[in-house]
From TrEMBL:
InterPro entries: PASTA_dom (IPR005543). It comes from Streptomyces seoulensis. Residues 71-94 are annotated as: Disordered. It comes from the Bacteria. Residues 2-62 form the PASTA domain. This is PASTA domain-containing protein.
């Protein structure tokens, strides 16, 4: 049997999809997987499409590990950057020729 893609599914949907195919889910970062409902699967092992025997365990994660990044903050930040496009960078204060002569 081929492992379906669980990444992107909510926990409740991933459990239902696994159960319908005769697979079991295990989550190292959520010991109480049955209580997780609206978290999204971000990683799985074995990979989607891998051949496994029936009644196999598929590991899913709902959190990125340390240093693996994530989606970041998606809310708008205020104040917004000024309009008008790119601005020319200003030089250092003082006379440029005076600094070169030293």
């Amino acid at each position: 049997m081929r492992v379906p893609r669980f990444v992107g599914l909510m926990a409740v949907d991933a459990r239902a999809a696994a159960s319908a195919r005769g697979l079991f889910l295990n989550s190292p970062d959520r010991p109480e997987l049955s209580g997780v409902v609206v978290d999204y699967v971000v990683r799985q092992f074995p990979a989607p499409g891998a051949e496994v025997p029936p009644d196999s365990v598929v590991y899913v994660w709902f959190d990125f590990g340390d240093g693996e990044g994530g989606g970041g903050v998606r809310e708008p930040r205020l104040p917004a950057p000024p309009s008008g496009g790119l601005q020319r960078e200003l030089g250092e204060p003082g006379d440029a020729f005076e600094m070169i002569g030293r």
